[in-house]
Specification:
The structure holds three protein chains of three kinds.
Chain A lengths: L1 H5 L1 H33 L30 H35 L3 H15 L3 H13 L8 E3 L3 E4 L2 E4 L1 E2 L3 H20 L6 H21 L9 E2 L2 E3 L2 E3 L2 E3 L1 H28 L2 H9 L4 H31 L11 H12 L2 H30 L6
Antiparallel strand pairs in A: 1-2, 2-3, 3-8, 4-5, 6-7
Chain B lengths: L3 E12 L2 E12 L3 E5 L6 H8 L7 E6 L2 E2 L4 H10 E4 L11 H13 L3 H14 L15 H13 L5 E5 L7 H16 L3 E5 L3 H7 L2 E6 L2 E6 L1 H6 L4 H10 L2
Parallel strand pairs in B: 3-8, 3-9, 6-7, 7-8
Antiparallel strand pairs in B: 1-2, 1-4, 4-5, 9-10
Helix pairs in contact in B: 3-4, 3-5, 4-5, 5-6
Chain C lengths: L13 H9 L3 H27 L20 H12 L7 H18 L9 H18 L15 H27 L4 H15 L3 H15 L8 H27 L2 H9 L4 H16 L1 H14 L3 H4 L4 H9 L8 H31 L4
Helix pairs in contact in C: 3-6, 3-14, 4-5, 4-6, 5-6, 6-9, 6-14, 7-9, 8-9, 9-11, 9-12, 10-11, 12-15, 14-15
Classes of the chains: A alpha+beta, B alpha/beta, C mainly alpha.
Chain lengths: 378, 245, 359
Amino acid sequence: MNKLLSSQKFKRASIQIVFLVSLVFIIVSLIVVGQKNIAAQGIATGFGFLERTTGWPISFSVIEVTARSTYARVLFAGLLNTMLVGFLTLFFATVLGLILALLRVSSNTLMNIVGTTYVEIFRNVPVILQVFFWYALLTHLPSPKQAYDLGGVAFLSNRGLMMPAPTLSATDLWVLIGTLTAIGFGLFYAKQNGGAKRRWLIAIAAFFAVFLVLLLTGREPDQSLISIPELKGLRFVGGITLKPEFSALLIGLVLFGAAYIGEIIRGGLLSVERGKLEAGSALGLSGFQINRYVRIPLAFRAMLPSLANQYVWLMKGTTVGIAIGYPDYFAVVSTSINQSGQTMELLALLMGGFIVVNYSLGFVMNKINDRIKLKGRS
Amino acid sequence: MSNSAISIKSLNKHYGSFHALKGIDLEVREGETLVICGPSGSGKSTLVRCMNGLESYTDGNLEVLGITIGDDTQQLDRVRKRVGMVFQGFNLFPHLTILENCVLPQLRALGRDRATSTIEAVDQLKRMQVYVHSEKFPDQLSGGQQQRVALARALCLQPEIMLFDEPTSALDPEMISEVLDVMQDLAREKMTIVCVTHEMGFARAVADRVILMAEGRIIEEGDPEQMFTAPEHEITKEFMKVVNQ
Amino acid sequence: MAASLTAPAAATGPVVWLRKHFFSTWYDAVFSILFSMLIAWMVNKLLGWAVFDAIWRVENRELCTHDAGACWAVIEDRGRLILFGLYPYEEQWRSTLACLAVIVTMVLSCLPKFWSIRRLPILWIAGFGIFVLLMRGGFAGMPLVRSEQWGGLSLTIFIFAAVFVIGMPLAVIFALARRSTLPVIAKVSGLFIDLVRSLPLLTLLFAAAVVVPLLVPEAIQGTKLGRVVVAFALFFAVYQAEIIRAGLQSTSQGQEEAAVALGMPYWSLVVDILLPQAFRNTLPSTINQAVITFKETSVVTIIGFFEVMASGNAAIGTGEWGNQYIEVYVFLAFIYFIFVFGLSRYGAWLEKRMRLGHV
């Protein structure tokens, strides 16, 4: 018996078995207790509630959502809101981050100081505080009656930024998306003929042609091309409104994210060995050419993993939107839990949603990484 | 008739589908110095590492100091406290001083108290002529000094057998002799030694027996003079030609 | 023989330095001139608002109009609310001392003297213990103040310290589990770590606050604060586990073999050999993680805890100080900035020294 106890195989097997059994036991007991508690509250389990109407509106959505929409639709709207703010943040933060990185690596000391000051300030203050700040600022703007008038076509007030927008019906939008996808596929298959520049020119021309056609045809006779916001009573009607919840979240995330992305880009630029830049110089390349053909491609490869990490992090960061009332996925789910009591199912949907978004982002970044990485002996 | 310190019968080891050790039969007597040589990939290191359980084996019989090496962790534990090992890469603990490198294993493996352990450590470091560096850290020492510290550390546990896995292969040429010298002293004091090495001069001077391994098998064994001047097997002849260049 | 050339004139001196750093190309020069004017104007405006035209004392609060400078009087009036939350007024000295205890612990952790596997945990448990005892009271003449009343900056510090103290040991366990040679444990812990890392912190805290009471019998539910702190610690632990794992991997495998060959038990291998090196090697990343955690404590305001963000918002409120949101937010930013900037500067300094091989 003693011999068995000290046998390495036995020890290893028994530890793992005990571990698995305890894990299963814990999970099962959680499920059992959970089901008991939920049943006691009279709430049905299962995802059937998704087809019920919510009975409450949300303040912002890309698709049409009312108090009579189903839970499924409302949750989807929340997910779209998260992705809207998320992808816009990624885009603008990268652009600003690039500028910051260039400022910080330039030989002009004043540029360095400006860049460094920005990064130190915006990195060392929590993002939620920054978002609160911008929200407070935007909601302390004057009311619509005393809104700032920007050229007569746009207005800034505490209800948001009202801008003119083309009136497109829902079908217009879908046709547009369909055409874009078709053009995308066309580009992909025409890769062999015509060369890059020509392809892009054709694509852009086609896009505009389709857009113009859509705009001019299929329009009600008295509906104008562009809708301009107009003050009617206490509010604005028409045009498109950028609500302060959305803007504050976007501004806060972009400024915060740019500080981090700027540092990552800077790290990438600095990681390019000087020897390679000097080689470019020795080969007679101009400063601009060295940047375009040597420094930036190599820097890009070096910074991609960190950049991917930061993108995932920023996507998750959109959840602070709930603090100022932006109905992102998390906000919508938590309201749903409050209203419907379907805690477990909604929590699963919440975590599932984020896991899917994160893994997709990670997957895309990995694919890009694999395609561009330096091939060598690994 | 001296006892067998290490007794190996029909030992086989597989790494997945790769057959690393093929039916090894070997007896190492108490007090004997055995040198194992051969081309790389022949399984010499693997064989030595089986002797203190760092590598497992697929089948066969392996007994060290009368204890069977196998699945039993308690027995493995007992064996490791009586068998010392010196590695090619020294493997000193970089965050501890030289003295602490030698004291800590005694505290943890043997449960000795700190006072006794320190006295023993000082003795062994002096024996290896590295005592003057006691308060330094490993990366402040040369390779040869580090290896001698590694030997002192192993000797602090008063092992009955010492295993050496290519102890000088990572050293710059001028430091090889300082390590081989202390190993020779050990051999003269009749410690049971199994040493994998390419240093033929050492083998000639000190070994009681030399074994040549190739492709997982023992090709030839005999006393050093005979192996070097009149090898019998083809492979041995080839190897000696290359080594003696 | 060719005529010898004289070496070019030495490129030093203040004019040359200015030229190189500010005016090296024409667009550099334009930028430098434009921006220095812009910065000078901004700094002038800022100083005017924040310092010279500012109103500092509460008695003068009628002067706090739209056109005046910063109304820092709000800090004097609501400062205690921001720092201590709803902690009873007479006992706020305890809150101050408690926060100081944690700050001292953090400073001491930066001294190499305390970097041993025994001293550091003892230091943190002592510091954190003193904090909790002082805040809670209930002995030696100090009236009891329950955790529901802890608030403001002291609650932020509590959450940070608790997450650290609970999360670090967890991180070590997770890292070792993921490295385990037992395949079941390694895979399960790997899955767990990757899963938790892909979730936003807020969802975990929310789940802990709202969902866990449903799943777990009354007896072990604990307080909402306790649950949220544990969830936060878990989140910290999985990130820190990856850092420690990287540190463990950088210690060479040979050392493990040497320890095994010397007959040293597994726990000694981990505690005496691997962990000390892993921690030393990853100290800058660990400090970075601590900095991020301190900033992330602000997120618990969404769960409904009255930490410094919430107390700041309460200080602004809708009442008399409704328009002084900028002053309060700047004050909050300043508080965070001191902690975060200080800690990250230390981390950068440490990293530099370690790279040069001095630590």
